[in-house]
Amino acid sequence: MALTVKRLPNKFYPDSTRVISRFYMHGSEDRARSIIKRVLDFSDQEVGSALHEVLPDFSKRHRNISKVFEKNFDTVKYVLALDPGTSPDTLSLERKLLIGSYFTSEYAIEAAAFFNPCPAE
User: Fold this and answer.
1) Which residues of the chain have pLDDT under 70?
2) Is the pTM of this model over 0.85?
3) Could you give the number of structural domains in the chain?
4) Counting CB atoms within 10 angstroms of each CB, which of 22, 28, 51, 101 has the fewest?
């Protein structure tokens, strides 16, 4: 059976102002520990440099992205307690924000609406 497709002139263009940020856990606690350890191994200069790349990019699309990163850090800081000798209280705010950024993803609500249609009733 052949299927006939009729193309319409409608076009969809991305709108970066219509994305939300949300917490994203990269699999298991072991994976989270590995990511956090890599950020802990960064020098202060590397942390500052990486954060100054990430903040302007996210802040174009999200208000108060620093608070989101801080909240996401707070969600995963229990992983630090799994490793003796590392305390969240000893980390700089920049390092906490960078760790939080690694656990932040963006979600385009419109894309989900366009490309995840529900079945016809």
Assistant:
1) 112, 116-121
2) no
3) 1
4) 28
